[in-house]
Write a structure and sequence with these properties.
With 131 residues, the protein is an alpha+beta fold. The protein has a single domain, classed as GIY-YIG endonuclease, CATH 3.40.1440. The protein has five helices and five strands, in the order E-E-E-E-H-H-H-E-H-H. Strands 4-1-5 form a three-stranded antiparallel sheet, with helices on both faces. A two-stranded antiparallel ribbon has the order 2-3. A hairpin with a 2-residue loop joins strand 2 and strand 3. Helix 1 packs parallel to helix 2. It is globular and about 50 Å long. The chain starts with 10 loop residues before the first strand and ends in an 8-residue tail after the last helix.
């Protein structure tokens, strides 16, 4: 269990999946985000942006631009990692974003500008060189 610091709360990395599904076409791309709020409150915030046609968040932009659908929180939202230190939040978030990007599972609205070679080494390790 992750300890909660009273000064900044519990930090969460979350994963939202587009649930758009039509005959022969399926989206299933993902968004990675961070929050210090509960997953339910964070999910409601994303849905509020979608319902008000406000594309300020990458997930809302993806749903609105592509006329995709979103599902129930229990079906499309996953806690990736609870974190007890704010210093690890951005590195973990960037790691998950790059891992999904390399696997072609990240929504285009969240594509990283550059790939980090350190993360690439962890995501796609090279076999040891033998002589």
């Amino acid at each position: 269990m992750c300890k909660v610091n009273a000064d900044w709360g519990l930090l969460l990395l979350m994963y939202l999946m587009c649930s758009w599904n039509r005959i022969f076409r399926l989206c299933k791309l993902a968004y990675v985000g961070q929050t210090s709020r509960s997953l339910k409150i964070q999910f409601q915030g994303h849905i509020r942006y979608i319902r008000s046609n406000n594309p300020q968040l990458a997930f809302a932009l993806h749903i609105l631009q592509n006329q995709h659908e979103y599902g129930h929180m229990n079906n499309i939202m996953t806690l990736l990692k609870p974190l007890s230190s704010p210093n690890t939040l951005i590195p973990y978030e960037q790691y998950y974003i790059q891992a999904l990007y390399r696997a072609d599972k990240l929504i285009p609205e969240q594509y990283p500008g550059e790939t980090n070679p350190l993360f690439q080494t962890v995501i796609n390790p090279q076999p040891p060189h033998t002589t």
